[in-house]
Amino acid sequence: MQRRILIADSIPANRVIFQVRLGDGFFRPLLTSDAASCLRAARRERPDLIVIDCDLPDMPGPQVIATLRADPRTRSLPVIALAGPDTPQKRLAALRAGADDVMTRPPDMAVMLARIRNLLRQREESQMMSRAWGGDLPERLGSEMLGLAEHKGSFQPVGPIGLIAARAETALHWKHKLAPRLREHARVLAPSEVSGYGDQTGQSHVFLIAADTGTHGGGLRLMTQLAGASPYRHSMFCIVAPETSDAAALAFDLGAHDVIDPEVTAEELDLRIRMLLRRKQRADAERNSIEAGLRLAIIDPLTGAYNRRYAFPRLAGIAEQAAVEGSEFAVLVLDLDRFKSVNDRYGHTTGDTVLIEVVRRLRENLRIEDLLARIGGEEFLIALPDTTAAEAHRIAERLRCVVGDTPVDGGNGVELQVTVSIGVKTGGGPMAAPEDITAMVDEADGALMRSKISGRNIVTLSHSPA
After folding, report:
1. Are residues 416 and 285 in the same domain?
2. What's the pTM value of the predicted model, to 2 decimals?
3. What are phi and psi of 99, to 5 degrees?
């Protein structure tokens, strides 16, 4: 599907050029000649990106951008502003209003198309959050639901900021352009200091890199190397290159988050670095939220043990590995004895305390490769890879003792004697067929029931007589 690019430019010849060049770039142009029609089209058509000239006849471009950012329907749309040469205040006004970039009019179309592709890719990445929630959430709603909404004055610029140029004097010049608050976080780095991916530079939040660092295109190669290295994978990269150069277009296509001209004013450089730091802060918050969500999908929030959703696929993997290696493994199903009476007598808060403590004791007596999962209210599943029947029985007895031998502190001076009943099923072995894990768990559960019938606080193997 063609991406739709909304153009707001009052000069007919410019609109014709945009129509032709955007069409050549496999985009679908939507053309408007003033601010009012641009705003209507943005709300009605919901384009993928907007290009706005700062000198529209009925409203200044920065005001148009501010209006777009204030409307929930258009707030998240990428915006490129166009400003005439030698108009630094208009450029700053557009950036402060919320433009993603400001380019000099008339733009180099190769660079413009590269920047459009770049911003659309970035937007696609940012929409991952909405898709993770099962739909296209409005930006503010999604941010508030996930705890990412920014409060006024909450953003504090942080570093470190890496400044990399062929000559240290050039990087020092950039550093002195920054306001004191950012300058203290900026560090001049030689290309050799980071090209080896060492930890000596710290994990920079923003890299400002000259397109040519010693060799033609050396800065671009360094950026791609850093972006693929673990310490810097989530950093923001800004390339310093002439706005109308091939290097600028290539930088955008290689994934640079911004490109600035070597003659950028101190005020604009400072503002663009702050914008990148803000994006870095938000990207980190979104990524952390996604990781937390993924963790919650597989972890029981009360005890920290894995949940049923994770346990059974993991158990299937253990069974498959055992079949490949010809090794044995074991499945244990545990249940806390008479746990309902704990909740009934002392309340669910005390019951939760007991569950948490039992899981702690179990985890401390299992190996790293063992699986511990909560599969019911007070029922747990343990998988023991590379474990014989005799070893599984000894482990089960040890777990029974570490739970039952020491009372659990239930809080408020309450000490509870807690015991567990355990059922054990082993499988695998040389020449054995792959095990049916559902059947194994059912057999372990059956052995658990026999432990309960036999008086509780007992370990029963699945082949033991009923």
Report:
1. no
2. 0.72
3. -65, 140
